[in-house]
Model the fold of this input.
Amino acid sequence: MGELWFKWHGMDPVDLAFTPALEQAQLIRRGEISPLELTEIYLERIARLDPKIGSFFTVLGDRARQEAQAKTEQLTQSRPEDLPPFFGVPISVKDLIPMAGVPCSYGVGVLRDRLADVNAGVIDRLRDAGFIILGKTATAELGSTPYTEPRGFPPARNPWHLDYTPGGSSGGASASVAAGLCPVALATDGAGSIRGPAYCCGLVGIKPSRGRISQAPLGDKLSGLVTDGPMARTVADAAALLDVLSGYLPGDPYWLPDPEIPFLEATQKPLGQLRVGYLTEILPMGAADAVCSDAVLQTVQRLEALGYTPEPIAFDCTALVEPLITLWRSGVDMGVPWLVLGKLNRWLLRRARRISGGMYLRAVMQVQTVARRLAMQLEPYDVVVMPVYLHHTIKVGEWAKLPPAKIFDHIVQWVAPAPAINAMGAPAIALPTGFAPNGLPTGVQLVGRIADEATLISLAAQLEAAHPWHQYRPAIAVE
Done:
């Protein structure tokens, strides 16, 4: 019935599913579609496509329909200008972010039915902005890997090619947006977990500056390495979602002043001359592969066409590796029984329990000391272009049969460009650049100065306008 209604009105359900969230909000305001009709489109797509993709752990179908029905009725009683910015627009939420009364498993199979007893502060902000939450998306077990294959759940798969990973730990979030199962997603990034999945699935993903988004009411995660952030198909949608998520809440250990202008407005802000750096090598790991290096060099050429003069720079993270590994291992010690975890996290947990409190604090101090030096090294540049990962997207299960130590070595090598940005607390935005020979998306990350997401967003919007990518859709999503 819903599909016929849209065809009668000249609106194709697939096109609506891939319409940017900001445009969906305008369609709702103009009465061209209702929140309930839009929600039904996504729930139908999830029911039909997600068994192949595995992007959702929990689908809140009845709850989303009830909320969408209430919002549809509210439309008849409200003026468009009085509605919040994303009134009636669906969204997905990563299953590391608690919602009261909804399962929150952290990617641990035996916890799949455990209900959260509190809302993360960002959940309240989503609701205040008018979003309808469709469900909780798949995450790597304890958020610890750059692929999403947790024990006890089906693996999340890349909509562009189901044999490949959508990344991790926010693989469900990236797969859900790339497949048109929701227009935008809320995810988390502690060592590239937004930027990596955005790269794998051809999306825009923003890792904000430390302190931009509150972690309330829960505590700080991994001494400031982790932040929530948006994932979307367009720069404007990601920027507008960042506006919704941002802001101090009482008691936050880190916080930033509000931006001078909304991040969405920054997408239309002209930029003056910028100093731009770029790199294709991360020490001590070495150079990125041809696919990832070419994406950086292609972006450099596009920036030159826009009038900028990027210059090559060096980036040596050698002193960060060992203390970051200490924090990474410590992050899996969350009170979950050893026996229920996958083999890599069991291996990490055994090593985590050898780390004393003093060793952890020394690692934090080392990370902060080295990160400060790296931030000063990048300070002369308004923007730095670098790979998201050092080699292209891996297949689902590609490392599954390797011993844990070897898997961990592969992970550290693959994600090398990402964790240093978390250590610095700097903002970064992942952008698609095109497609590799195997048909999977490619991309880069733009890294900015602390608290200067606006410049990154402005430059990303320029690149997007010159080379739009959001019109591309995976074949599975349009069958």
